[in-house]
Amino acid sequence: MKRLFLTLALVLSVLSVMAADIAPISNAFKGGNASSLSGSMDKEVDMALPGSSKKCNANDAVSMLNAFFGSHKPTGFTVVHHADKKENGFFVGKLPTASGEYRVNVTYRAEGDKAIIQSVRIE
């Protein structure tokens, strides 16, 4: 019986530290594919891109990123810092493009193992 409780405690502790998967978001930035982020956007997203900043719905956020990627074709993407805290997290990445390198900050909330984007800042 002791063994069962120890096993159960171990399984629960491992599940509680699992982080949201940011790979789909990272891959979308790497490929300049904003449309693939439509299912990862929260209902309202804070967007800050060079030349514009606003709080918008998920569709507008994807449109803003599509316009950015249309003008600044990504040549890669690297996550340089990533942190999770309970149901929230953020990551910082470098986005090299044909017109220069940008710093990307994304905050998200975790929904199971999925990251739901709450804000995107590209500078």
UniProtKB/TrEMBL annotation:
Pfam families in the record: DUF4783 (PF16022)
Signal peptide (residue range): 1-19
Superkingdom to which the source organism belongs: Bacteria
Keywords: Signal
InterPro entries xrefs: DUF4783
Protein name in the entry: DUF4783 domain-containing protein
Protein source organism: Parabacteroides acidifaciens
